[in-house]
Amino acid sequence: MHVNNGIFFNYFEHARAQYLYEKCDWNIMEIGTVVARIELDYVKPIHLDDKVQAWVSCTRVGNSSFDLEQVLASEDQSTIFAKCKTIMVSVSMKNMKPVPIPAEHRAILESDLHKSA
């Protein structure tokens, strides 16, 4: 049996959240992030006994938005299951309108530019 393709979005969502929390220490109580666009390329089905891991890297930083590139692969990285490109927007949690990316997060995201996912 294989994993339903809709679950791939969940895997990538959890990886993005972990990346923003662990790498950027993003405080979502004041300024959060929302997905503005997502592209997912399915490469190979994931079977129930497959061990998978997601990799995330930042590929562009704008004023209020940034792009993340993600790869879902086997733990030994020998098999790629899917690739994902996501445009994230920094938003005020008060009104959900775009706001500039906080300087401390921008610096971390920019340091990650051009590193492969």
What's the domain count?
1
Q: Tell me about the biggest sheet?
A: 4 strands, antiparallel
Strand order of the largest sheet: 1-4-3-2
* Mass-distribution shape: elongated
Number of strands: 4
**Average pLDDT rating:** 93
**Helix-strand sequence:** HEEEEH
The DSSP helix count reads 2
What's the helical proportion of residues?
Answer: 10-25%
N-to-C CA distance: 27 Å
Structural class: alpha+beta
CATH superfamily: Hotdog Thioesterase
Round the Cα radius of gyration to an integer and report it. 15 Å
Which architecture per CATH? Answer: Roll
**CATH structural class:** Alpha Beta
Classify the fold: give the CATH topology.
Answer: Thiol Ester Dehydrase, Chain A
Domain Thioesterase: 2-79
GO molecular function: fatty acyl-CoA hydrolase activity
Organism: Algoriphagus formosus
InterPro entries: 4-hydroxybenzoyl-CoA_TE, HotDog_dom_sf, Thioestr_dom
